[in-house]
Amino acid sequence: MKTFIVLPKKPEEAIPQEFQDDDNRFPECLVRFLIEEYTNPGDSVLDIFAGFGTTLFVAESMDRVPYGIELDLGRSEFIRKNLMAKDNIIHGDTRKLDDYAFPKIDLVVTSPPYMKHASRQDPLTVYTTEGHYSKYLEELVGIFHKLDKFLNPDTRVILEVSNLKGDEITTLAWDVAREVSKVLHFEGEIVVGWEGFDHGEGVYGYGYDHSYCLVFRKL
Q1: CA-to-CA distance for 113 and 115, rounded, in angstroms?
Q2: Is 64 helix (H, G, I), strand (E, B) or coil?
Q3: Looking at CB atoms within 10 Å, which of 18, 80, 139, 156 has the fewest?
Q4: Rounded to an integer, what distance in angstroms lies between the CA atom of residue 124 and that of residue 115?
Q5: What is the pLDDT of residues 86-103, one digit of tens each?
Q6: Cα–Cα distance between 194 and 210 in angstroms, integer?
Q7: What is the pTM for the complete model shown?
Q8: Count of CB atoms within 10 A of residue 160's CB?
Q9: What is the pLDDT of residue 19?
Q10: Residue ranges per domain, the chain?
């Protein structure tokens, strides 16, 4: 398995105009790379922070069975409208993961909503309630602890995360790796170098031209 890859930072599919100011998707090519590496046709692929459905759409196009959870109603309705397996996207709160019914999953590809250390809005509620960085990390650990029961023994759980620049650097990728390692086995990271036009904040955004795919499996 390669531990450093370079990919274009450009989504292949358009999303409706109403969402374009908040388009924080990872590109389809990343999901395609991970699905090819870790699954076979017919396998199940889950994204517990489904966003605009990139993981689900790519999985379905590659003859895998897609599943997802998305808290934002507009995004979840967009996914359901465009997914063939419409019943496989849940509009719900990932923190209540054990309330939902999923089959055994063969691959998880997701990107948790990001939070800076100094932020006081909770990304796990779509930034609608007060939050704190330590509580955010604690809740992520709880989510991935609940996820364990849905995983086959060889299932990889892959989290695409970046460190964040600002007035101070938030070592989000490293903090997530450390905390989630409490409930899943950390196999290592794939560094993703992003190619594309640099707007002064890095190709990826957040001041960087790369992010990390953190690879976990069951303990």
Answers
A1: 7
A2: coil
A3: 18
A4: 9
A5: 999 999 999 999 999 999
A6: 5
A7: 0.96
A8: 21
A9: 87
A10: 4-217
Q: At CA 2, angle to CA 47 and CA 10, rounded to 5?
A: 55
pLDDT tens per residue, range 69-128: 999 999 999 999 999 999 999 999 999 999 999 999 999 999 999 999 999 999 999 999
> What's at 100, amino acid-wise?
Y
**Alpha-carbon distance 95 to 26, whole Å?**
22
d(CA 179, CA 22): 27
The answer, yes or no, to whether residue 164 has pLDDT greater than 80, is yes
**Residue range 36-65: average pLDDT?**
98
Higher-confidence residue of 1 and 53: namely 53
End-to-end CA distance of the chain: 20
Contacts for 131 with CB less than 8 Å, ≥ 6 apart: 115, 119, 120, 121, 122, 123, 124, 125
CATH 3.40.50.150 given to domain 4-217: yes
- Is 173 in contact with 163 (CB distance < 8 Å)? yes
